[in-house]
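chain below, 668 aa
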Amino acid sequence: MFRKIIAKVLPLLVAMPFYAQHASGPDTANYKMEIFLDDSSNIINGSETLTWKNCGYKATRELRFHLYWNAFQNTQSTLSKESSRIKARMKGMKKKDLGYCIIKSIRTSDNDSKELIDITHSLHYIHPDDDNVNDQTVCSVNLPWPVDPGDIIVLVIQFQSKIPKPILLTGYRKNYYFIAQWFPKIGVFKGDHWVCHQYHSHTEFYSNFGTYDVKITLPKKFIVGATGTQVNKKDNENNTVTYRFHEKNVHDFAFAASPRFIQHNETYRFDSKKNVEIILLLQPEHRMLKNRFIKAIKNSLTYFSKTLGDYPYSTITCVDPAFLSRSAGMEYPTLFTSHAYFLTRPGIPMPEATTIHEFAHQYFYGLIATDESENAWMDEGFTSFMDSEIYYSFYGEPYYYKEYFGIPFTFKKVKIPIEAVDSQIGVSYFRHHGSKDIMQRYSWNFFDYESYIANVYVKAELMLRTLKRILGNDTWNEVLKNYFIKWSYGHPRPKDFFSVLEETTNENWDWFFDQIVYGSGKIDYAVSNVKNKIISSQKNKIKVNNKKRLKNKGIHNPLKKKTLYKSEVTVSRQGEVKIPVEILVTFKDGSNLIKQWDGDYNWKKFVFENRSPIISAVVDPHYKIVLDINRTNNSWTTKPSKFSSFKLTSIWLFWLQHLFESLALLSG
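prediction:
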């Protein structure tokens, strides 16, 4: 009996370290594709050869595939049901303008004879996340034999994808095409189970790394940008052209095509002497923004190379999307879409902010590659944090602006500090919506879209900025560097980042993450009360024979008062989250001191006996805890000071932001 148990358990024990090290590494899923884009029917016909390796620790006789564009074939898909906005768009469209992705055939080779075996008949749609039988964004295929851990299987797939008009992130707008999540893409076999979620509202994507070799044939008039490096371009006799793109160690493939693109190429050279080619595909109406796009990309490359490491690929392609194409602000391996206004000016962070943000995804989405469906904050939060760091480092504080009828209006006297997170979302977004959910949730399980944004983007960035200020720049940069080195190509989960932080600082941070990541409470510390009371006052008599000498020296008050004050400062915790804070107390004679409070109980009273009264008290004087939802109650003062002006500014910005939000609501 014991031998039988060992025989079953030993292979698992051997395979699990293999899984832990290689489950997400390069060459797990390699794609070789040839596709034909017909711009008259807006249909892609393609063949796909997939070489897939089982990096789990259990055999599987099932393969699962994403067919994302089936979310666009009718209003019965889970995506449509979860989003009234998507559903309304699709209801107003003709059937020929919708989309789909169909597997026409799928075959695999026999392990012995290498003969292709048709397994198309075993294909069936599944809905692992809900009970929506009408959703066809995930399919399952049964195999004639199991694929053991470490084994490789080759599949040959014929498919057809109907390109939709703009619904969400992809599609065509007149003669502009942005093609993303468009082919049958295998899910991730993680340990002993499949991670292959349906297409949900405000949920992005997750897949294994591999090598992509893709040939794209389409009419000659099109200029094409895509994931990877263009290795060949061949003119065909039928007035078409075939582009070939190739890239290793990426986990997706997207491309853009338009005859209107103005292409600009420029080389960036790292200090290490490595080069990367910047490819910018501009809309003609944005040609005057070329230098702003290029500078934003170069600034991003510079910052990341100094903080985390050189960008590892040889190209980076920025696509300026067509107006109303609904493809702006998205990231794919070595390629991203930005966003720009026709009327803009320096100080308005467009196109810089979006360009920097989407480039930053090349590291956290592209290289570290967290699962955006299950751990979205790990991608969007880190990316938002880094894009703020880059923007403020190179451009300073942006102007506050609001968009009316597609035109940005600038408020030049209002600049947005980095603690406010974003000029269009702002910390108020977190204040209003953040407590609806905890940060760590599957993306489609958030209460609503506002809660998703408040937690995945805003709260996550505020948390990381708080950590940076608590740790200090040097330690924080070490944490980031260690995280990047350890988890590049690794698909880390929350505990993996937490472990890096603990290893780097030699501290346990469970108390912090339990409250912030796995809790929905708010941080709000305040100065509740300050009292000054005279407890003794006496006069020292000066001898009469000294009075004349003192008077001759200009000292007209021969009596010197010695007054002793008993002062109290009461600080309170008005939120649920408990975190250590500092209190800066300043006395009238110019002296000051800092007291520490663990922030655990509801309130804490500090008592002082001093010959000078307190004139100000500030909780968190160095603004380390940017997660604090209300800075207007953090200080008390008896006279104007830098803290009182900060408090007045905070209150003014607080109400100004609400005014702008109300105006935006009324204008909408």
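Residues 525-667 form one domain. Residues 319 and 337 are 5 Å apart (CA to CA).
thats it, cya
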